User: Which sequence fits this backbone?
């Protein structure tokens, strides 16, 4: 098994961190992982994305033209990456900022009002965690408990941020699971 | 030790510290800045020296000085920055001093862009600086391989008293993969009895690359050639994939491009097309003998590079032009995709059939 997911959004939305947490969780579970960022003269407000590959076998190409899944946090990311997805993939779409739907009927779409959920949970900055939770909920690519552990580990030096981030993960996960059922 | 998820630049930095590379001089340039960022924090913890100096010219001459004093020193930069170091690199080779230089290649020529490239192959492999010298060149394809090659690079630099280059593309620097730092054991090294580290009680050592006496200079040239021949005999490293099954095409690629080829090979195998991969790990010495052997069953070879085909001449030389050597590559920071490689292999196979008919 090998799954590739592109996390994409504005710079500052936390897509790089969301991808890193997924890759780290996979690594802790003994899977093969690669995290490849788009890098360039990018800044807050520009576009950013990273590709995470999780697999059981050593990962050959870190470059993926047609990812299985995407998690898109803004409209330009949806326009860019949804057309590239392989059929039967999962697209997690941030409905707080994206008003359109992916123009495809061969993929599973998980609509998540990520910013809204994060704001209600205490901080809009954790919208990336809602996306990450929803992605894991919809794919079970890694066990949710392992992901939560990794997020706790990430914020170990800023422990007061753990509850809101975990809450966002859980809310997202619930929406992802619902889509699965 | 458990695996950790690290960016390539950080992994290279940590591996070098563990290999005793405790003297680092650097100047910022994307896409290798995380090395300096990491070392600026880490070097003080391990009692090493991290120095950001005023230019790459200064960096390379500080390497010359530190290497002359007998310490394990190294730097990292990216293409235009490496060009600025070439004069000192030639001096270092002439003075037979050990140091390690990592080039996380970006696009070129000129100032180019910050995206991945393999456009510095010739500069690294054929010299780069002036004069009759070579450098050992390692090309890691994964972050684990990068952390394994750094200690080897330091060891070989000391063992042969020569500069060693590690050539990675922007992806090697920027991507994250799990790495495990293992202990490396090498045979004992000869003492650095040539180092200018204080001459109380002995004759002063001299580090020099100026030879006005032609006879002496020729002696040095011949000594260096003998050294490079020894390196070529002993230090070739390569990897291969799919060579245990029948194959019609042999891909040749190094670094991350080789991994893209592996995915292409898996896709081609699903269609019943046998393709194998030869991956040089040392670019100098180029593993020509093994490549020649592996080329025998192939109808043709295809070099896949993020350059305009700089490695092709070495492949042709290795196979003595007995097999056609084709080229597929992308430039400018665009990376060949597995799909593109698949298409190119099929296109060439169709063309080959057409030619035979």
Assistant:
């Amino acid at each position: 098994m090998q799954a590739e997911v592109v996390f994409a959004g504005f710079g500052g939305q936390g897509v790089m961190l969301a991808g890193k947490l997924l890759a780290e969780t996979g690594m802790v579970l003994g899977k093969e992982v690669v995290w490849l960022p788009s890098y360039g003269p990018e800044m807050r407000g520009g576009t950013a994305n990273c590709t995470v590959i999780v697999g059981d076998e050593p990962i050959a190409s870190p470059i993926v033209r047609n990812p299985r899944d995407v998690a898109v946090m803004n409209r330009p990311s949806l326009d860019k990456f949804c057309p590239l997805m392989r059929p039967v993939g999962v697209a997690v779409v941030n409905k707080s900022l994206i008003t359109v739907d992916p123009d495809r009927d061969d993929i599973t779409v998980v609509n998540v009002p990520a910013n809204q959920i994060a704001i209600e949970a205490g901080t809009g900055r954790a919208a990336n965690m809602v996306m990450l939770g929803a992605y894991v909920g919809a794919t079970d690519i890694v066990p949710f408990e392992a992901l939560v552990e990794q997020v706790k580990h990430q914020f170990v030096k800023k422990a007061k941020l753990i509850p809101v981030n975990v809450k966002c993960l859980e809310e997202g996960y619930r929406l992802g699971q619902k889509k699965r059922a | 030790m458990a695996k950790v998820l690290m960016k390539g630049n950080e992994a290279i930095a940590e591996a070098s510290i563990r290999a005793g590379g405790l003297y680092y001089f650097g100047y910022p340039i994307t896409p290798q800045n995380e090395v300096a960022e990491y070392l600026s924090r880490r070097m003080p913890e391990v009692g090493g020296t991290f120095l950001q100096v005023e230019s790459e010219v200064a960096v390379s001459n500080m390497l010359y000085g530190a290497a002359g004093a007998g310490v394990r020193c190294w730097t990292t930069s990216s293409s235009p920055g490496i060009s600025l170091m070439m004069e000192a690199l030639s001096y270092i080779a002439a003075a037979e001093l050990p140091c390690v230089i990592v080039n996380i290649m970006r696009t070129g020529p000129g100032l180019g862009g910050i995206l991945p490239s393999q456009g510095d192959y010739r500069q690294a492999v054929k010299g780069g600086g002036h004069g009759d010298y070579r450098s050992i060149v390692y090309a890691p394809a994964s972050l684990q391989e990068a952390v394994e090659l750094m200690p080897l690079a330091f060891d070989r630099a000391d063992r042969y008293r020569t500069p060693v280059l590690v050539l990675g593309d922007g992806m090697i620097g920027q991507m994250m993969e799990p790495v495990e730092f293992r202990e490396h054991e090498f045979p004992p090294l000869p003492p650095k009895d040539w180092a200018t580290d204080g001459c109380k009680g002995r004759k002063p050592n001299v580090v020099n690359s100026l030879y006005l006496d032609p006879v002496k200079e020729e002696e040095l040239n011949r000594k260096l050639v003998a050294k490079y021949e020894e390196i070529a005999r002993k230090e070739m490293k390569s990897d291969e994939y799919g060579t245990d099954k029948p194959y019609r095409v042999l891909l040749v690629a190094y670094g991350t491009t080789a991994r893209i080829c592996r995915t292409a090979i898996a896709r081609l195998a699903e269609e019943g097309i046998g393709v194998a991969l030869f991956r040089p790990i040392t670019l100098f010495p180029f593993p020509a003998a093994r490549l020649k052997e592996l080329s025998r069953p192939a109808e043709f070879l295809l070099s896949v590079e993020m350059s305009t085909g700089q490695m092709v001449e070495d492949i042709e030389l290795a196979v003595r032009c007995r097999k056609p050597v084709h080229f597929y590559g992308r430039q400018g920071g665009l990376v060949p995709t597995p799909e593109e490689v698949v298409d190119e292999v099929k296109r060439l196979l169709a063309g080959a059939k057409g030619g035979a008919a």
About this structure: Residues 2-180 of chain A form a domain with the Pyruvate-ferredoxin Oxidoreductase; domain 3 fold (CATH 3.40.920.10). The mean pLDDT of chain A is 94. The interface with chain B takes residues 20, 23-24, 27, 32-37, 39-41, 59-63, 65-66 of chain A (CB under 8 Å).
